[in-house]
Amino acid sequence: MHDVAREAGVSQATVSLVLNDVSGSRFSDATKDRVQKAVETLGYRTNAHAKVLREGVAGMIGFIGDTVATSPFAGKIIEGAQERAWESGLLLIAVNTGGDKELELASLETMLSYKVAGVVYASMFHQKLDVPKVLREVPTVVLNSEDKAGYFPGIAPDEVAGGFEATQYLLDAGHRRVAMINIESLESLLPGAVGRFEGYRRAMEGAGLPLNPSLVRFGEGSESHGFRYALELMELPEPPTAIFCANDRTAWGAYQAMAQLGKRIPADVSIIGFDNQETLAPHLRPGLTTLNLPFEQMGRRAVELILGGIKPLGQLELLGCSLIERNSVEKIKESQ
Known about the structure:
six-stranded parallel beta sheet; 434 Repressor (Amino-terminal Domain); four-stranded parallel beta sheet; Rossmann fold; 3 domains; alpha/beta; 11 helices
């Protein structure tokens, strides 16, 4: 830094204030330009280790995920978190553990040794997690999931509101026999399965349509279960005119079932999904109307909470899922 000051013809303190963009410090543009040119000429870089020793925290935020980085759609979580961190001059250091607990612990220990400003602890799908207690040493936000112990704050999709909106969209199109193929049993306590079913139930009952168990199936979120249960539903004496599939892979299976039965989507049956999986939903024929999981917004919000100095009160913040309209839902004819 002294070399930079000498090259720019200013004091070392001036160099420090300019490079750290200290609020309240006022320098002419000419002075800033001289400092920046000196930095470029000399190839100066801030000593990160010295900065940690001086300020007690690194200019980094840690991001730990199970398979978030390799998921075809959840990677947007990292994009949102990285963008928000960069806006505040911080780098996001991400590790994809693949569910390996030893790698997770080693990564966390390394991040903590580097004195990261905080950690985002993320999961590919909404679930309740055992969050490592070592994270109590640093500001931590659980992302796309919830802390089982109720200690760490979390950010997750509003599953109930999303299930309600998907079902209401079908009801508003005139459908009354609306079926649902869920992604898990209610006994699994998986937040996505429980919440999306609750939204479905509320919408149906709100329309004066008591829950009909014959119109509900519980799969495992796979294409094969969507195919199997869609066939079952269409074989009912009074088949549904619309199906709410609790994820897009299930909807994909339902599409295949309709093709086998010679049913047209949406003329014979309307289908709505959940996830807006970009490698799938837009490419089905017709394009799948679905609910978009707010991955990018969740990633941004997690970093915002860390930067804001959030306290570990275990609160859960839910973000809305927006409707993505394509061509898989049709208004029902009066005769139907």
